[in-house]
Amino acid sequence: MRIAWFLLLMIPAASSAAECSPVRSGPHTNALVELYTSEGCDSCPPADRWLSAFAASPGSKLAVPIAFHVDYWDYLGWKDPYADLRYSERQRTLARVSGARAVFTPQVMLAGRDFSWRGGLGKAFEAVNAKPSAARLEIAPGKGPVARVTAALDGGVRSEDLALFVAITQNGLVTQVKAGENRGATLRHDFVVRDLKSQRLGSANSVEARFDFTPRLDWQLERMALVAFVQNTRTGEVLQALSAPVCP
Questions:
Q1: Residue 190 burial by CB count (10 A; 0-12/13-18/19+): exposed, middle or buried?
Q2: What is the mean pLDDT of residues 79-91?
């Protein structure tokens, strides 16, 4: 019942004017839910379906789901079309800063920490959302896959190890897998990262930057969102996250 209540709150307004308006984070911390997955991994589809429970709400202010497809399972015979070496390296970096000895799929990270997705969101989700925000985010979508993103830190927050990450994600992706561990399966994905950019905050306590993404042939802007989050690159902690629909 608790999860159903969250999902009801996470349904966005369905107006084109709202999609093109700036979106701002609130006084509490939004929960960044990262899935590391691969179409070449036969244990990943259940986790993909779990993440897709959020598919009706890409602009939620309670949770910001995002799926990174890694490339280290491509050798098994199926090259994941959404995989990227950068996402594999991101997972390895987060593993190092958290003290983990290896990476694996499927892996879910909640606010920068390893999370057992099979147990549901529950109290861990509520605990993240209850924290006062240490950073404020604003996404001002432009026309197409572009946005101006502003990140501002609250007083007393050190900025030296912080970075602003901005991703563009896509829902409703379907693949007919013809080889590898999932051969013959039809896989469906949501919140898939199609590109990722970042900018370090350095010594500044705020940053405002324009992020432009180059469209690809299979991008469908009406199914895409812009995701921004501020993360400590030394500890992996996510200070704030935010999502806004792409303005078609």
A1: buried
A2: 98
